Amino acid sequence: MVHNKAKEVTFYHAGCPVCISAENSVLSLIDPAVKVTIVHLGKEKEKIADARKAGIKSVPALLLGQEVLHINFGASLDDIK
Amino acid sequence: MVHNKAKEVTFYHAGCPVCISAENSVLSLIDPAVKVTIVHLGKEKEKIADARKAGIKSVPALLLGQEVLHINFGASLDDIK
């Protein structure tokens, strides 16, 4: 029996080496049943404001509903802006 | 086709609120095919040295082979010791 499965997550990154390495690892682990959206904040700068509102402070980060998992540290959101 | 799937990971934590929250989220996301070992460094202090050798600097953290994903920040390994 599986409880409380997250069905949708967003992985935020900015193309940095730490981001890419984390992306590969995270994607290799995530349940195939989970829908993963990948947002490259360096290329999609219009999404930085939303990411900030969601509580993202640095990338790479994974957003699950309202919870943010900051994974290692690649770059601060301020440095992308 | 699935490439490069991690088959085994270790989740290190120390029972802190940040750890427990991250544990719930991470476990809800991980592919059921991946074997997850959970190590509570507060209770299994003999494993702190190994964790340090593997590159763990703080908990919660996920170890995949030789790669460490530090997830948010609950406590430094030094604070557990």
Automatic annotation (TrEMBL), chains A, B:
Q: Which InterPro entries match?
A: Thioredoxin-like_sf (IPR036249)
Record's SUPFAM superfamilies? Thioredoxin-like
Q: Which domain of life is it from?
A: Bacteria
Identify this protein by name: Thioredoxin family protein
